[in-house]
Design a protein that fits this description.
Blueprint: H1 11-19, H2 24-32, H3 38-44, H4 50-62, E1 66-72, E2 78-83, H5 88-107
Antiparallel strand pairs: 1-2
């Protein structure tokens, strides 16, 4: 279920509810880079459980960040996740955040995998 409330004392609190936590940014990054099916996401993020991935995808969909499309109704279903069209600015921000953290890691001699 979505964590979004009707009122926030700070925009960053809303941002945290939308994309905060351990998994949402990683999920968004992978979806925006082509890992747009459940099976691809589980391979791309092997340390996330299927239950948690399902919950996070549902929250992102409920909040209008991603869209879920059923391509094939016949078993097995093919479901594709895409970044909602109106959220393209968010993906640019995620990309810039990745760039920033890579630079930070480099300056601090922290090893970060791509």
């Amino acid at each position: 279920m979505s964590k979004i409330k009707k009122e926030y004392s700070c925009a960053l609190l809303l941002a945290n509810d939308l994309i905060g936590g351990k998994w949402k940014l990683r999920i968004l990054w992978h979806i925006s880079h082509g890992d747009n099916r459940f099976s691809l996401l589980t391979k791309a993020i092997p340390d996330i459980s299927q239950k948690v991935l399902t919950t996070q995808l549902k929250e992102l969909e409920q909040d209008g960040i991603i869209e879920r499309t059923i391509i094939n109704d016949n078993p097995p279903k093919t479901i594709i996740y895409d970044i909602a069209e109106e959220q393209s600015d968010l993906i640019e921000i995620v990309e810039k955040l990745c760039d920033y953290t890579k630079e930070y890691a480099k300056k601090k001699s922290i090893e970060v995998a791509d």
